[in-house]
Design brief:
Helix content: 55-70%
Number of domains: 1
CATH superfamily: Outer membrane efflux proteins (OEP)
Oligomer: single chain
Strand content: 5-15%
Number of helices: 8
Largest sheet: 4 strands, antiparallel
Number of strands: 4
CATH topology: Outer membrane efflux proteins (OEP)
Order of helices and strands: HHHEEHHHEEHH
Shape: elongated
Radius of gyration: 38 Å
CATH class: Mainly Alpha
Structural class: alpha+beta
Length: 461
């Protein structure tokens, strides 16, 4: 006698044939090798989590702590982590059977078929049900892994926001100190120009200067006076920006010390190791997103395979007109459900999951390549700014010597006070450039901290 082939048997055979598709290998990202032309691929530097301490400013460290506790973007990122954790817990609940209990009651008035007289009946039922899906093909496990990877990716995203907030606070604080220094230099420059106006006015009264010279001196004084309100507006904007990062209303921001008091961190002589990029939370998060998309793709491929569900129920039911009320009822069973035809919906969903996996892979590769570029650019910028700052400091020293000589020549009667004032203004102009370069170098170091996902050990004396 030939065995009969049922529809369920055909479905199971077809699903088994598709099992190989569900087990296709999935891509796993790896950190690319260090580019051969990367200039800083060696070294033994170590990272520090609280890298902002390296600047030696207690007020800056306090502001970063306030921002990490109250910044709204960071609070939003923390809420997303809590959401991802709850979703992962909900997905893990699929490993357990579901248990339900219910109770019902009804009262009815009917006509007896025997006596043809109406009667009242009260019925009740208590029921306990249990169901469980057997994870034959690892679908539930894959979805749980995807949820766990998604939760870890959200934590990496939160760490990325925290790093960005700390770096933004540090850069805004450095910019604030730069504006303070520029304000002090602008006041000195204005005072020097006011003295020059008085000297030119006296010389004109004595017949040694023309009206043109006086008008030019007054024009320079007015130009210097215009710089003060511009710097004041810039200070107010900088404080407002910093207060937004700190999560507090507008107001003055406390300073710890002048810009020149901030310590500059130094790179190790051997350079920076490529492993520093593994500390970047955005790279870690992108890698986790790829792992989550892999698990989701594996779960999508198991939709072609049959599912096995077990169920059981136990309860009591009865009516007041029945003898032996109530009755105990129970059931045990299982069901196998296998897809036969769905118009290509499952295949389309699997292709969509594969496309999302490809998107995650591309995003991961872009993040890594962007990290290499960012680190390389910031390191080169750091080197060039150090050279530029050394030249500016040497220029300031030369200008200070010129001012000393001009002052001595004026006291000895070989030069006028205007020569001394001109040398003083030249020195102030150079000092303004030095302040900008010092701030720029510190800003670049903060950008390096952000690019490297942390900091490095070692602070210049």
């Amino acid at each position: 006698m030939k065995p009969q082939v049922t529809s369920l048997g055909l479905a199971l055979l077809g699903a088994a044939a598709l099992a190989a598709c569900a087990e296709l290998p999935l891509a796993r990202p790896t950190i690319p090798a260090v580019p051969a032309n990367w200039h800083h691929a060696a070294g033994t530097a170590t990272l520090q989590g609280d890298w902002w301490q390296g600047f030696g400013d207690a007020r800056l460290a306090q502001l970063v702590r306030v921002a990490l506790a109250h910044n709204q973007d960071l609070r939003q990122a923390a809420a997303r982590v809590a959401e991802a954790h709850a979703l992962a817990a909900a997905q893990h609940a699929a490993f357990w059977p579901s248990l339900d209990a219910g109770v019902g009651a009804a009262r009815s008035r009917s006509i007896s078929d025997v006596t043809l007289r109406p009667y009242l009946a009260t019925g009740h039922q208590e029921l306990f049900q249990a169901s469980y899906e057997v994870d034959l093909w690892g679908r539930i496990d894959a979805l749980a892994r995807a949820a766990d990877d998604g939760e870890e990716a959200s934590r990496a995203a939160r760490d990325t926001v925290a790093l960005s907030v700390a770096a933004s606070v540090a850069q805004a604080y450095i910019g604030l100190l730069e504006l303070d220094a520029q304000m002090e230099l602008a006041r000195r420059l204005l005072a020097s120009r006011e003295r020059t106006v008085e000297l030119v006015r006296q010389r004109r009264q004595q017949g040694y200067a023309s009206g043109l010279e006086l008008a030019q001196a007054e024009a320079e004084r007015h130009a210097g006076a215009q710089a003060l309100p511009q710097l004041m507006r810039a200070l107010e904007r900088q404080e407002a920006q910093l207060n937004v990062l700190l999560g507090r209303p507008p107001g003055p921001v406390e300073r710890g010390g002048p810009l020149a008091a901030l310590q500059r961190c130094v790179l190790p002589d051997a350079g920076l190791p490529s492993e520093l990029l593994r500390r970047r939370p955005d790279i870690h998060g992108a890698e986790l997103q790829v792992a989550a998309s892999d698990a989701q793709l594996a779960a999508a491929r198991t939709q072609w395979l049959p599912s096995l569900r077990l169920s059981a129920s136990l309860g009591r039911t009865g009516a007041s007109v029945l003898r032996g009320d109530p009755f105990t009822i129970w059931s045990l069973g299982g069901s196998v459900l296998a897809p036969i035809f769905n118009g290509g919906r499952l295949q389309a969903l699997a292709k969509a999951s594969e496309a999302r996996r490809d998107q995650a892979l591309a995003a991961y590769e872009r993040t890594v390549l962007g990290a290499w570029a960012e680190v390389e650019v910031q390191l080169n910028s750091h080197e060039q700014q150090q050279i530029q700052l050394r030249e500016a400091l040497a220029q300031r020293q030369a200008m200070a010597e010129a001012l000393r000589i001009a002052g001595r020549r004026y006291r000895e009667g070989y030069a006028s006070a205007l020569d001394e004032g001109g040398a003083e203004r030249n020195l102030i102009s150079v000092e303004q450039g030095v302040v900008s370069l010092q701030s720029g170098l510190l800003q670049t170091q903060v950008s390096l901290f952000r690019a490297l996902g942390g900091g490095w050990s070692g602070v210049s004396p």
